[in-house]
Amino acid sequence: MERRDLNRMFDALAPTAEQEQAVLDRLLQTERKDRPMRKLKKLTVIGIAAALMVISCAAAVVTGLDQRLLDYFGANQEQAELLAPGAVAVDVTVEDNGATLHVTQVLMDRYNIMILADFTAPEGTVLDRDDYIFDAPMGVVPDLLNRAGEPVELESGWGYQIKVLDDGAPQDNHLALLFCTELSEGFQPDWDIGGISLCNGDLVRYGAEPWDKITACSGDWSCEVPFTWQDMGRSIQPDQAVGDLDGIGITLTELYLSPMTLRLQLESETPILREFGGGVGIRWLQLVNSDNVTLTTRNGETIPLIGNGGEAGGQDQVCFFRLAEITALEDLEGGALNIRIEGGSVDVPLDGLVPAE
Fold first, then answer.
1. Are 253 and 265 in contact (CB under 8 A)?
2. pTM of the full predicted structure?
3. Beta carbons of 165 and 68 less than 8 angstroms apart
4. What is the tens place of the pLDDT at every residue in 97-147?
5. Which one of 84, 88, 229, 281 is CB 3.0 to 4.6 Å from 276, fit for a cystine?
6. SS3 labels along 252-310
7. Is residue 265 classed exposed, middle or buried when 0-12, 13-18 and 19+ CB atoms within 10 A define those classes?
């Protein structure tokens, strides 16, 4: 049974208001026969609290994601169910110079960590831009932490950026922020992950020139955000030739899909080079992009892709995409990935995304 079907079943089994009242009356009548009222109140409260906890947990599966995250992904309530396995609620608050950073939620899959936070400046401050970031010393990036709070050494690189989300009030002293970290090699099961550290100095934006830095709020809102890793995706190894680039064969060695991410691992027969201003560099830009990659479901529906970038080294090429529509792996199973390189086109079957029952 799929998650969405399970949730619908819970909804169908949920008692009506009249049924809840009838059960409560029955409990009260039963308890009054055997116990004094002083103990009855405690027992009744515990029972109701337990029932509410069950109801709240069931509701969290469906509605646990912050609406701003849903808006960012353009997700409806049914699609929110698909993202819920990768969501973790957190509560981290840092205050400095009258301004507060409050981290409330983490959403992740094997290659992405997205952290939602609210930044509130002192009254009278106007934060009306969408290009604010936190200043940090040169070269300082977030650190993954183990459960002991120590940095985890990574052999591969990662990308990091801060996005200002629309909060419906662009002229006030509040910002909704999304911290986005992308791991090039992805989370490994043997990692002992307990959270991530963020280095958040002054809130700034940049002017027309790179050195024209404008400070909106001075302070330090660095913090550690605890979470346990959740992976809502799955990878397959097609090992399929997908075309030639400059006469050099390209093979798709691994494909990863989650409801929000597509990652392609490609390998060339020999290193692909091109000239860069008189020097020699690795040719990796635009090996594949959202213009020549198409993702379709088993029903033939095309899922739009948003290019997120990539990186290369030697004969390897990694390409990241965000799915413009949150999509269930069950819908992609039996579909296809079409890749077009230098006039050639090949379909890669999407089989093995959902474990056989």
1. yes
2. 0.77
3. yes
4. 999 999 999 999 999 999 999 999 999 999 999 999 999 877 677 899 999
5. 281
6. EEEEEECCCEEEEEEEECCCCEEEECCEEEECCCCCCCCCCEEEECCCCCEECEEEEEE
7. buried
Q: Which residues pair with 334 in a beta bridge?
A: none
Q: Read off the DSSP letter of residue 324.
A: S
Which tokens hold the place of 328?
A: 């269930």
Residue with tokens 């029955």: 26
Q: Could you tell me whether strands 279-282 and 293-296 are parallel, antiparallel, or unpaired per DSSP bridges? A: unpaired
Q: To which residue do tokens 């509410």 refer? A: 52
CA angle, 135 then 141 then 143, to 5°: 135
Q: What is the C-alpha separation between 180 and 162, in angstroms, rounded? A: 6
Strand partners, 133: 204
Residue scoring higher pLDDT (352 or 212): 352
Contact 203, 186 (CB under 8 A): no
* DSSP annotation of 151: B
DSSP 337: E
